[in-house]
């Protein structure tokens, strides 16, 4: 018997990679293994350019004086606790890079994959499938590109500095993390812990748009070969700010 027959490729993929979309809460979908390794490497190369851009990666300081452990570079609009500005006034005052056209297209594809998954087996509730109409008009104008290393984590929070209730599209590359996805009322239970691996897509919109969420931990040493990152985790969240 050939090696091919003994070890079909799908058995070598990390668990869940080919499992298809999963409904986490109405409006919140996890799509494992959405980006190919080639796409991941290409995005990691763009990340290298963004961090050499006008505004470097920086760990934001919260109003109480606490500095976040995650470092972020922004596209389109600069996020600082707790508003969006065109210039990175809390870093070096320079205007942030434009939001790339390719990322708008990717955002639309992401909503399609999440909310119109076709015959991939996921049962969407009525509310979630009603969000499928959002895909072709979705025009994100801000991305927070987060980099986690050395034990970085992110506390439970809502993404609520936007003046739009359009969905948030989240992409993960590099090390696996635990993504805690909660409810819209409190930062505590009930929540669901989801492992986000390199290449995974997560979309939260509709009734899940203002749910609390956070990253309790990143699992060191779990970045897959060929993703473009040997350590750490990149997360991109695209948003519609509703600002002009
Ligand atoms: O790293 C993640 O997956 C989540 C990031 C996040 O929640 C945020 O940037 O607001
Ligand atoms: Fe967030």
From TrEMBL:
All copies of domain Fe2OG dioxygenase, residue ranges: 139-242
TM segment ranges: none
Cofactor: Fe(2+)
A GO molecular-function annotation: broad specificity oxidative DNA demethylase activity
Binding note for cofactor: Binds 1 Fe(2+) ion per subunit.
Keywords: Dioxygenase, Iron, Metal-binding, Oxidoreductase
Ligand binding (Fe cation): 157, 159, 213
Signal peptide region: none
Top-rank taxon: Bacteria
Pfam family of the protein (one): 2OG-FeII_Oxy_2
Gene Ontology terms: biological process: oxidative RNA demethylation
Cellular component aspect of the GO annotation: cytoplasm
InterPro entries reported for this sequence: Alkb, AlkB-like, AlkB-like_sf, Oxoglu/Fe-dep_dioxygenase_dom
Listed name of the protein: DNA repair protein
Organism: Paenarthrobacter aurescens (strain TC1)
